[in-house]
Amino acid sequence: MSVVAGRFDLEPNELQRELLESFGAFFAREVTPDVVRGAERSGIDRSLWDHLVQLGVLDMVVRGAAASDSGRWELTLVARLVGETLAPVPFVEMAVVTRTLAAAGAQGADHGVSSLVPDPIDGAGSQVVPWGAVADALLARRGDALVLVEPTTRLAAPAGVNLSASPVGVFRWPCGDAVETIVEEGEGAHDAWRELHMDWRLGLAAMLAGAAARALEIATEQARSRHQFGAPIGSFQGVSHRLADVATHTDAARLVVDKATWAADRGAPEAASLVEMAWCQATRAAEEAASAAVHVLGGYGITEEYDAQLYFRRVKGWALLGGGRTAGLARLADHVLG
Amino acid sequence: MNFDDGDVMAFAEEVAAFVRANVSDDELREIRRRGDGHDPRVHRLLAEQGWVAGPWDPAYGGGGWDPMRTMAFRLGLRAGGYHAVLLATSTFVGHVLQVLGTEFQKQTIVPALAAGDAVICLGYTEPDAGSDVMAARTRAVRDGDDWVIDGQKMFTTGAHVAQYCFLLTRTDPDAPKHKGLTMFLVPLDTAGITIHPVHTISDERSNAVFYDGVRVADRWRVGDVDGGVRVLSLALEVEQGTTFLTELEDLLAAGIAWARGLPDQPSRVDDAAVRLALAELALDVELSRLLLQQGVWRRSVGHPDQGRGPMSKLYSSERLAHHASVLLDLMGASGVLTADEATAPGGGEGERLYRFAPGTMTYGGTSEILRSRIAEAGLALARSRG
Fold this sequence. Notes:
Chain A has 11 helices and 8 strands. Chain A has helices spanning 14-30, 33-38, 46-54, 57-63, 72-85, 91-103, 186-225, 237-266, 271-296, 308-321, 325-337; strands at residues 113-116, 125-129, 135-142, 145-151, 169-173, 178-185, 227-228, 231-232.
């Protein structure tokens, strides 16, 4: 227990409130379920993404919206809105990669999409890469170097609409047909890679916490309005108690994401373990909430016409692209047990 | 947003340090073994610090604590090793007396509570009225200036060491069940009261209390005749903030100690199942803390509860049961050993908390009642019970 003259406060400050209000209005207006469905196959809505970039979402994360501001709150508050609305944009990956490159004094793709290759690419192998099928540049780790890989041809997109409904690509290495630039080497590369992963997972956790909150709303609206046996189904404890548990998980996810953001923003040493906790909780809450939404809708829940399934598929897909929950627990155990 | 609770938790640290400095380990062990939820000597020491009356208005000798500081006090007491059910009940019933009590109660009982000379136990639950607290049947009948009370209460924890019982009675059996209730503060040395011990697997002693023609003067009535629901509502409101965060923390500490191993026991830190289980437990410690802070903070700043108040108690109690079970399972055969046995893994904390956990999901509001409150107040779902 550290004795610091802090004052615990869950109220968003002026900057945080402004971000949530102005971008919240934008996402509510622009990112309708029709927009999400329109990008079901491509996984990306380029005009929506261009619009967001013009509004400065990337600059905010890279430079911070205010002086003495790490950009972490900008990352997670916007990511929450991306998750709530399922906006088909590469915000989190673009933001964290651009940020890492800027910190190293390097540049990413000028106009296109940058993303990251999650696992190190020593030797030979292949892995599924978020936004890989549309990426012009990929930040990767090889040996003790951080490298920017710019494939001369786009990565192969796997067949079918994948669970994340995003344009993943399959990255195979060593790859002959790519321009490769060393961004950083040695200790600096090690730190930058660690920070990149922390910010990436924090951003994804915020997306998942946002998706959980919206999925809970969908479930709750149905529990209030759907009548069976002459009563709203939300009056049956089999339904209401499950939703109470989801509400608890969803609150917990938002709180731990906010706390991890707060710690990362201050550069606090506990930020690393809090980010793993945020990841473990947000993945769980989002899956619980989306499963409940599908189930409370009964048979309609599994039909394509209803929005619940959009959340159900994506939240699991996002959790998997981030490496899955169990891997997060294993990393958390490193903090708990050393 | 600011998650820095350093200022308020510095007080928890102060309270824990006070307990450790003034109560020996042997004494704490003995208090825990008795399972009374109260110790007169320690209680008076805490009262002398002004801590029993801490949350009260300064006009009543209180410290005017906000809910955050009250939370820190409770966490500090538990961290120091003192488990005090009657301290919490005495503080919040004292608060109710200040708002709804008679002059006699304010002048006589409230100062005795603040000084630590008297403590109060709760007489709500009956054999046939648990979660359905308003179904209480213990009768109070007016007789001149007195009331005569007949009936039975169950799980009156601390009745054998308290001076008073905050007793819910039925004064109008013909009115709808929530309209015929009246609250009393009954001196437990009154003739006609019989206290039978009820021993539990949680190492806590509770009581069944029988009221047989118990005669009390009208000045012991709290609130209006047939106005018991208002008193009960206020009491439930000021009782908020229950959690089993400290027990989860104790279980985590025991689990880590066991995993690292003793000189003569193998280390389990490389066992993947152990690592994942302890990571889940550490996560739930943090989530229980955040849910607690959220509920308490909302009350501190005057935000409506919206179902947030019960979340930490619900979550921490259920996860305590889960993690105690998982940890014992990982320990294998030696998990059966209790804290009495020096070689018990994790000091026997897993075994103790496995037995302690079931009660935590019942008293102070069952998990089912809490889920209904979250669904109704937080999600605006229809009420599921009368």
